[in-house]
Amino acid sequence: GITEEELAHSMNGMVGSYPFKFESNPAFLGQLMLLDHIGKPYSDLFSFKESVQKYKSKDVVRRISEVFGMKSQVILVLGDKTLEKELKKLTGKYGKLKVIDYKKFL
C-alpha cells in the first residue's frame, strides 16, 4: 500500500510544481483551453491545491485497485496449445480464460 508519508510527498511535489505549468502565456492559455474542452470551470486553476490535498492514502489505493486490479486486466499468453491445461488451473485466481487460435489473425 501507500503510506500517508509517501502520499504527502507526492502531493507536495504535484502542488509545488503546478504553478510552473503557467510560466508562459501559451502554457496558461493551453490550460484554459483544456478546462474549456473538458467542461471544467476556470476556477479549478486556483483550487488545485485543495483538490489534491483532500485525498487520503486509502482513496488512492482503492482507485489504483479499481483501475489496475486483476479484474480489469487482460493477460496475453502466446505459446504452444499445451499451455492451455496449465493456464486453466489459474482461472480461479486470474479470471476467465479465452483461447484464440493465432491463425485467426493471419
Quick take:
By secondary structure, this protein is mainly α. The chain has helices at about 5-15, 25-35, 50-55, 55-70, 85-90, 90-95. The longest helix is centred in the N-terminal third of the chain and has 14 residues, at about 5-15.
Q: What features would you describe in this structure?
A:
The protein is built from 6 helices and no strands. With 106 residues, the chain is an all-alpha fold. It is elongated.
Separate helix tally? 6
Cα-based radius of gyration, to the nearest Å: 22 Å
Low-confidence stretches: none
Give a short account of the largest sheet.
Answer: none
Gross geometry: elongated
Helix content: 40-55%
The chain-level mean pLDDT equals 88
Strand content: under 5%
Helix-strand pattern: HHHHHH
Gap from first CA to last CA: 43 Å
Structural class: mainly alpha
Count of distinct strands = 0
